[in-house]
Amino acid sequence: MRILQLHCDYIEYTPTKKEIKMAEDIENPETKRFEEIVVVFVAIEDDDDSSVAQNAISQIKNSMEKIGCKKLLLYPYAHLSSNLAQPSIAMTLLKEMEDNASDLEVSHSPFGWTKSYNIKVKGHPLAESSKVITKDSKDNKEITSEALKGESKIRSYWKIMSLDGTMVNMADFDFSNHKKLEILSKYESAKQRRVDEPPPHVALMKKMTIADYEPASDSGNLRFYPNGRLIKSLIEQYVTDRVKEYGGYEVETPIMYDSEHPSMVSYFNRFPARQYNIDSDGKKLFLRFAACFGQFLMANQYQLSYKNLPFKLYELTRYSFRREQSGELVGLRRLRAFTMPDCHSFCKDIDQAIDELKIRFDLSKSVLHELGIDESDYEMAIRFTEDFYNENKSAIEELVKKHGKPVLVEMWKEKFFYFVLKWEFNFIDNMGKASALSTDQIDVENANRYGIEFVDENNKTQHPIILHNSPSGAIERIIYVLLEKAAKDIKEGKKPQYPLWLAPTQVRVIPLKEEFNDFCETLTDKISANNIRVDIDDRNESIGKRIREAEKEWIRYILVIGEKEVNSQNLSIRDRQTGNVRELGFYVFLKEINEQTKGKPFTGLNLSKHLSERPPLMV
RNA sequence: GCCAAUGUAGCUCAGCCUGGUAGAGCAGCUGAUUUGUAAUCAGCAGGUCAUGGGUUCAGAUCCCGUCAUUGGCUCCA
Hints:
single chain; alpha+beta; D-tyrosyl-trna(Tyr) Deacylase, Chain: A; BirA Bifunctional Protein, domain 2; Rossmann fold; 29 strands; RNA-binding
């Protein structure tokens, strides 16, 4: 059975003529009109039986209860299916559905007639839905969280907060000096878009052999080539180092959970995610969409005193999974499987939570900066309940001051999610698309839900306040930002480049002739002993071609080795930033590189040192 | 998920409108070349035209379904 369910302001229909012999007899085929009604178009299919009809009507009743409508019109509609049941069976089942809904104001439009109709469907998100119901689909209903269903009910107000703490309605704000904030504001509130081409990082992620789509997986689950894996793992390492330095304990937790476990059930309903579901041996498992579960369940095992707080757990989730709508997936910006650093801080009260929030705010800003993303690249949004604002005005204003630019504010009349405040930094890309990077939340519910407790100064048991921080946002998204920024450079006629510490090859050595190969081996060994990724283009190609290809790989330093270099103490270094050749002593050169990569993690080449041994990757 | 566009050699693309032997450049292989800062030369090899069906004497080409990608819509805790 296929049904299309519409919540309508009104429907009018007029039976015009009998379509089949067995069409229902009706006394006077005149126009009928109903208002404030749920219209369900129904196609009964081959194989449908009474159980299907029962199932269908109970699903319909279920959703009608949610939208608070008590009037139902069943509208037989053959066009929904190409596999229709016999008309006699269809009529019986339709009648059965109607009988089973007698607690509602129910009617049906005549079966077997051609009808004309006029309909006005309501605009709310739950107004329209279609379902396919078959004999064995009874238990197969999509698990959708209450939060996802209810999200549309949130009432919120959009404002802009300036550095002095004043708030004006978004419509009254002068955006002329804040173009990116304007983009973000319209993006978030009015959902305005203005794009008509693919984002440039998608071509770049392939051309630079970083990542690619994997047709053999689900969409949004990407493959990372050696270059991409290297870049990604360095960023992962860097973010992890910073969180550990801040005081997070790094842990690892399972990627799948039992959705019927008591602590999951209620969390589900506060967390509007679409998840991957897996049935295994009768268990209904889902793939995690955040690190929260694992860390909360673990926090539960710690015996916490107020003296231990704030207590911080951290995991870099590889991966978190969200089954985003297929049309929403793009390159590295929006994925179904992504790597998310997630740090939870358990605080003894709101005051401590706010102090901690500020520290993590600075941490997030600093991490982004070191990754090559500055304030000019992103805009801040902050969301809070009206109550929280009234009680913590100055803390909120302080965050805005720290950001140094006006901020988009969403104020909720009442708490709908599990948090009372959430801020995020949104990168605005070349096409005017906004994507969230760093974020932090003040969670006042989950400690209770997960039974996380600490003992306070008075020997009383309390639930901590939990902060949820991702200092960088998804790692894939950081790569997306770096590539979008590179694309912007290309557009402006500048040379795109990697931050040196992330470059898959930092130095390329090109021997002029075969006879210099040995010299190059020795030289590269000396360079790589200093934690620098260096390789040798030992292919039998012209010097011009090998330089061109190094340029196309965005390799910062090129060393051509010939007669002159072999007989000199100095190196001839072609610096891609300027395109000029400089003569530098060996140690001066090392120092120049090491200064630029200071404080960043290092890992060795992820490809063979000799280009002659590398199979080209065609993407 | 909905609407639309796109899918031809490992890669980038031409051919499709108007049906009749599948084309180029790059990459690969073989050989020559040993090169001084963004493409050395020649030869060879390489294609279930995304996939499944239909129309036709004949389909890369026309029609329908499916998958993937991209754009718009919806969504983004």
